[in-house]
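Box S2. Input/output pair 1.
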Amino acid sequence: MELNSLKAQIKSGSFDHFYIWKVDEPAIARVYRDMIAKKSGANVSYVDTIADVFGRARSRSLLSTKTLYVIIDDKDFLRNERAWKALGDGSELKDDIVIFYYTSADQRLKFWKNFKDRAIEFGKLDDRLLVKHIQKDVPLSEKSCHTLIDVCEGDYSRILLEIDKIQNYSDSINLGDYDMCLLQLLDEGAIYKQPKDAIFDFVSAVLDRKPKLAYDLLEQSYAVGEANMVLLSVLYNNFRAVLQVQTCASSDVAKSTGLNGWQIKNARPFIDRYTDDELIHALEILRETEVGIKRGEISDEVSVNYCLVNIL
């Protein structure tokens, strides 16, 4: 079933007896669930299995309120073909509606093949749509919207939670600049940033002589389990490349240094951030530290911080 077909049903107020939803984005599914409930005049109720629904439907009185049942990951229903048939004409449900939420779908199962024309997928929204949704709720710039999307890894449910934080923070300090509120919340850690593989960003920050950024990215590298010896090795190789490119007098840098085009391209932005002597000193510190770790003379835990103190 296409999402547009569901939208048409909501507009007309004519609904199926039950729906099967593959839900990757709960916040969007919740919007459609609420629209169905409102248009049909039903109260939303969460139950564990379709058996619970059948039991309640049989005991309903004439004065009972119409109910929209939501069942999340009912694994028994995936193989209960008798229940499929019982739901078929809707007679077991009377006026009630059932929505099955599934957070994963094994397309090899007979269930998904049987109900392929009824299943609706609520997948992740693309960035363009997320920006529109965000700006409906809070006046962030497009750049800030993309920052929020990146931090929340495109998860609209998480984005909504963070939007509430931004709005509440703005109200509490009486600051109408929502972009600034977002930055402050990120800096203070009130909006959680998922650790990411930041090793190359970390190296770039060190080569660019940006201490605060370098230390922040070092923490992210540690958060994803990056080893100190790996960090030292990558730092050494990149400092050496910068030194080779910076001191090369030949017009054919690749031939003179032995570096490939990619290495040369990555080194060029950091030319003259350090003097030649400082680059040589950095390489000496990194090599001495690596040897010191292997000999047990320097603690692995403090090795990278030791190098940064002596280089930056």
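Box S3. Input/output pair 2.
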Amino acid sequence: KTLADRIRAVAALKVSLASEPSLLQQANVQEAVASLLARENDLVRANREAFVKGQPQLFTEDYGEHYSEVLGMAMDVLESEPSGSSVRPRLLTEVLTGTYNPDSPLAKRLALEGDPIVPVVVEMTTSGNGPTRWNAYSLIELLLNASDQRLLKAPLATGSRQALKAAARGGLLDPAPDVRIFAIGAVLAAKDVEAIPLLFHMAQTDPDTGAGQLVKYSVRHI
């Protein structure tokens, strides 16, 4: 389907769900939402690639509203369907790797899933897409903080906590300064005392000095 077709389909599904919320329980609807979000995620990533290469954008600014609708439907499915549903792992992966603010209520809600999302979050730290990586480090921080407060639906296994800690430290070496900033938060949440020398070194030598009005956002000044 074209983007216009998908926008119309989402509008029609939204109307149907408003009058019959139980549709979210149907396997075919859940699969349709998962597939739709996967398609939109691919489009967003392709659009970012086009932007980086100086090519024409693949959609206009009003696309954001459509994407938000799809992401919202995906979250509605996650909240409504049983934890053992076959579509849940796929849908969780698509939402986790989707487009959202790293400090948003959505990110905080996703982190509460706990241990099952750790493999996806760790894999996200190796993505070629910068926003996916910074979301990954934000999620690591949120996961570890929620774990300390015993808020997770599924507590972190010892191996999962170690994997998150290792991934967080690795993020301190990310080539993108905005990603390194989020990695610092993740390292602090991991209480990784062995990373203190590296943090000190970054504070002294990181190339992101934040010169000018953006100084408060620089890696050196986090």
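Caption for Box S3: The chain has a mean pLDDT of 90. The first helix runs from residue 3 to 19.
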